[in-house]
Amino acid sequence: MAMSSLTILTLLALCHSSIAFRKFPEGFTFGVATAAHQIEGAWNVSGKSENVWDRLSHSRPEMIADGTNGDIACDSYNRYMEDVEELTYLGVDFYRFSLSWARILPTGRLDVVNPDGIRYYNDLLDALAENNIEPLVTLFHWDLPQALQDLGGWANPKMIHYFRDYADLCFKEFGTKIKSWITFNEPYEICEDAYGDEKKAPAVDSHGVGCYLCSDTLLKAHAEAYHLYNETYRPVQNGRIMISINSIWYEPSDPESAEQVALAEVANQFKFGWFAHPIFTSDGGYPSVMVDNVARQSAAEGLLKSRLEQFDAYWIQRIKGTSDFLGINHYTTHLITGAGVDPIAKSPSWLKDIGAVTTMEVGGDSASEWLRVVPTGFANLLRWCKSSYNDPPIYITENGFSDYGTLLDYGRIKYFNDYLNEILNVIYDDGVKVLGYTAWTLMDNFEWRAGFSERFGLYYVNITDPARPRKPKLSAEYFKELCATRELPKDPRFFEPSFFRTECRCFFLILIVWYVSE
Ligand code: NOJ
């Protein structure tokens, strides 16, 4: 039987729909992100004081994979105009960057305000405004002034006031130029990696204890900054303020296993819910499973009090609802394989408190051990956020892929393309309100304890050259086209040449159907 033209047309339409991507909705915005310590350099000039990363990388260089540090980094303190040129070339709507607390307030407190720090950020903001690029500014992206760490850092409740003071100064000095603020970048990394472990500076490694002292202080500090902005600055500056929460999304290794499904939910509550539940749910406070698990573990350890205390009624109310949007930094998905103590868990620890065994044996790889490529996990996380947090408006404040620094970075493009495609899916199929997307990162930069050994940039930076030249990678061209067209670029030059690309597969499918029907 000859294949009817209708069948051919239907097949063509089906094939086309699988390769013709939908446009991002009207008003959806695109940007790229950086962070002060990762790009600025100028670590000790013009009044900037030492921060916890300066201290760690100088005093314990063996803690940084390639022995580098942020002393010069991308030299953006001196070369910020080059950064603005790159942003303009990309055609982004916004630029997410962070303020260096130690550059603005060298003691961390209001007693000394560094005029050069204020000038630097005003210059950058003015250059962005001249090029119609909206700033999205993070107050705290991990670089605590060492002077405040010497007082206990985020384990010290006094930090609530110090952070509020710092935020107050920033709102006052820059608030007419900045309409979008992020209080904290990735509270999990701050509290668990830096206080509960030594994966980040200041590497306190107070596992199972410091991590929860930190979250207590950090969430209160966030709430105070939010209320300050909301009551004092928003009425005159008309901006918005949010928090960026990071997630490793956990899924059951065996989706048929009820135990693993339940444990994955527990892990997601421990990871994302730790900071999202107090702010984005109507009950507020830490997730009950977290409170219960830590109380149980603490009792088993012979403690009279839980290592994690629930907020009191005053703070539950004060923290609830303190974010205009849900900012999500997302990179990867890991799996849960069963109940028990994860073999890598310290005792006591946040990981042991979860009571589940995790594995990274999933998806494609990257240059970072922890970063597995699992685009569908992103969609699952976004759907979960919609249902768990009352359908919040969401900004993806970071998403990106690491390699070793190649200019033809097909792996990065594929990652962006597949993850962005999942965003389109959840927007159109599930009604998740994703309003913007931020690629991490504008240029290769100081990747914390990995130094410059793992590279996430759209631009390649040669860090052995004092001029720190930046070169656009292929992903920069991809991102430029994305920003210009508001749909996933289809130009074949962005995709690794492969015979079995989608179009070829579709062509062969038609041929086979035609042959069979003959
Ligand atoms: C999240 C952090 O915010 C950023 O500083 C870091 O470089 C990226 N993840 C990649 O690890």
TrEMBL record:
GO biological process, one term: carbohydrate metabolic process
EC number assigned by the record: 3.2.1.21
Keyword Signal carried by entry: yes
Signal peptide: 1-20
Keywords: Glycoprotein, Glycosidase, Hydrolase, Signal
Superkingdom to which the source organism belongs: Eukaryota
Catalytic residues (positions): 398
Pfam families: Glyco_hydro_1
Molecular-function annotations in GO: beta-glucosidase activity
Keyword check for Cytoplasm: no
PROSITE patterns in UniProt: GLYCOSYL_HYDROL_F1_1, GLYCOSYL_HYDROL_F1_2
Oligomeric and partner information: Homodimer.
The protein's name in its UniProt record: beta-glucosidase
Biological source species: Helicoverpa armigera (Cotton bollworm)
